[in-house]
Write the C-alpha cells for this entry.
Amino acid sequence: MVVLDMSMSLDGFIAGPNVDVQRPLGDGGERLHDWMFSGRTEQAAKALEDAAFEATGSVVMGRRTFDVGEGSWGDDTFHVPCFVLTHEARQALAKGPATFTVTDGERRKHPRSSRSGRR
C-alpha cells in the first residue's frame, strides 16, 4: 500500500517562493503545515508528528527536496529508508538511522519495478 502524506496549497504549491538551503520550505512555506499544528499544545503536536513517522515505512522524495533539506535535517529526522529520485545517481548517504539511496530509477536496480508500467 502506498500512502501520500504532504501539505499542498490549493493552487498546487508544496513550498513558498525562494526555496534554498537556508529556507528549505521557502518564504512563508511553514504556513502550509499550520493546519496540522494549529490549536495543539507542543506536546500534542509532537505526538501527532511522531505517530505519522511511526506509520511510515519509507520516504520517497525528489532531488531538489533532498538538496535543500538534507543539510538542515540533522541526523535524527528520518528513521526509515529514504529514496531520492533523480537523473544523477550517487552513493547512498547514511544519516542517523536513515539511509538515503539516491537513484536514477533504472529498472534493473529495482527488480519489482520491472513489472510496473507494462501494458
Notes: Confidence is low (pLDDT under 50) at residues 113-119. The chain has three helices and four strands.
